[in-house]
Design goal:
The complex is a heterodimer of chains A (241) and B (202). Chain A contains 6 helices and 9 strands; from the N terminus they run H-H-H-H-H-H-E-E-E-E-E-E-E-E-E. Chain A has 241 residues and is of the alpha+beta class. The longest helix of chain A has 22 residues. About 15% of the residues of chain A have low confidence. The relative contact order of chain B is 0.10. The chains are: A alpha+beta (241), B mainly alpha (202).
């Protein structure tokens, strides 16, 4: 692994066009992770994305159904006045912060279950008229090293639907000034999900994000700034249905 | 950078045409419906053309566009300026969803291939395109000229990968070219396009 950008340049160009597959998708992720917080990588990514985005202009525009914009603004309202990533993690922090630090692992797990129930109750009570699907599939995250996961992390969601419940127990402290950051991997691209700050190794949060195009979830250890791109290798991954 | 009004413009969209996309998106984040409608008017028809080009099914293409703009409306904060312009983010989202739809369904893939073989290429004849482009908005003209200016083998890779939704491996398999050749042609094409399109990229 070097700081040479030739390989990254080539793979980013292919990814921007939607053509990256096979081992090259993993190779690019590893290269980007190895480069960490790299201005040149970001520049190349933005340039290729820009060119790819322009190619669509070569096509003859195709008018859309006239009512589409009306349907969108009528059915869904954006959440105003808050930053979703941090907000998504907030319920977990608030809930876990109330627990007795001497609670054992089973007690912590019970507390997490209660937290999840509370979050679920909140979701159900505040869901929009057109409905939020109650998550129906549970996946367990695996330690990305393949050597067994430190602690346990799981997610409940409904395939193809928005939103998921994420909870964990026995997680090691990510370190001073560090948090866990959850990513949705879409076509090999990490999309920021939420930052998770465990208390006594436990986390629980509702992830308000579109999972319909995510193939994989990954968790990395990041600074509390919650960067927009991962800077370290994943410590947990989970494949989605 | 502004775009021509290329599609349907909903009632009530009275934004100045020069308002930057990023400014509109920030206002969408604050729940500004008019800003959303302006972004929709600017890009929905282009996004629809892209989705339809890939999936070849009107209903699926409309669903993809609706999902993409719904994401803009609900979670505009997912846009990261460090990763490119609003337009590239939007088109990337649409392209990604459309390619995903194509690859998820093999039967649909076969239909797309058959249609792609029959349908005219985006740039069949550069001369014809340049002539017919006289009435097109400036950006379209430039993109079509940039595509037309690529060497045939590079344009073919871009065509298959971006407009037909094929992966690098599928292109290598279909054309019999070594995978490394497909990759190097892609990069060369993107570099050349970037040079030609530099004046209109934000």
């Amino acid at each position: 692994m070097t700081r040479d950008h030739a390989l990254i340049d080539e793979l980013l160009a292919i990814r921007a066009l939607g053509g990256l597959d096979g081992d090259d998708a993993d190779r690019l992720e590893h290269e980007l992770a190895a480069h960490g917080d790299c201005d040149e990588c970001r520049r190349l990514e933005a340039e290729h994305a820009e060119v790819a985005g322009m190619l669509a202009l070569a096509l003859d525009p195709l008018p859309v159904d006239e009512g589409m914009a009306d349907r969108i603004v009528a059915q869904e309202q954006p959440k105003k006045g808050r930053e979703p990533d941090r907000a998504a993690a907030r319920p977990a922090d608030e809930l876990s912060g109330r627990r007795d630090p001497r609670l054992g692992r089973w007690q912590a797990a019970f507390g997490i279950a209660a937290a999840v129930a509370l979050i679920l109750a909140f979701v159900l009570a505040t869901r929009p008229q057109d409905g939020v699907q109650v998550p129906g599939t549970v996946v367990a995250f695996q330690g990305a090293s393949g050597q067994g996961a430190p602690g346990e992390l799981a997610m409940a969601y409904t395939p193809g639907e928005r939103g998921a419940l994420v909870w964990g127990a026995g997680l090691p402290d990510p370190g001073s000034g560090k948090v866990y950051e959850l990513w949705m991997i879409e076509e090999g691209n990490p999309v920021r999900g939420a930052c998770l700050a465990p208390t006594d190794g436990a986390v629980a949060t509702y992830l308000d994000a579109d999972l319909s195009t995510a193939e994989l979830m990954a968790v990395t250890v990041e600074s509390t700034e919650c960067p927009s791109a991962p800077t370290t290798d994943p410590v947990f991954t989970a494949e989605l249905a | 950078m502004t775009l021509g009004r290329t599609g349907h413009e909903p009632m009530g969209s009275a934004e100045p045409a020069g308002t930057p996309d990023e400014a509109l998106l920030r206002r969408v984040g604050a729940g500004d419906e008019r800003a959303f409608r302006e972004l929709f008017a600017r890009y929905a028809s282009v996004a629809h053309a892209l989705a339809f080009r890939l999936v070849r099914q009107a209903q699926v293409a409309e669903e993809i566009v609706q999902e993409a703009f719904l994401a803009v409306w609900r979670t505009p904060e997912r846009y990261d300026p460090a990763r490119g312009s609003v337009r590239s983010w939007l088109m990337g989202t649409v392209h990604h969803r459309a390619v995903d739809a194509v690859r998820r369904e093999q039967a649909q893939r076969r239909r797309a291939d058959q249609a792609a073989a029959l349908a005219p290429r985006v740039v069949e004849d550069p001369i014809d395109d340049i002539v017919s482009a006289l009435d097109l908005p400036r950006e379209r003209r430039l993109v079509q000229k940039a595509l037309a200016g690529l060497p045939d083998e590079q344009r073919d890779v871009i065509q298959r990968m971006y407009f037909d939704g094929m992966s690098q491996s599928q292109i290598a398999e279909r054309t019999g070219l070594p995978l490394g050749t497909v990759k190097s042609r892609t990069l060369l094409a993107m570099r050349r396009l970037r040079t030609h399109l530099g004046e209109v990229t934000p």
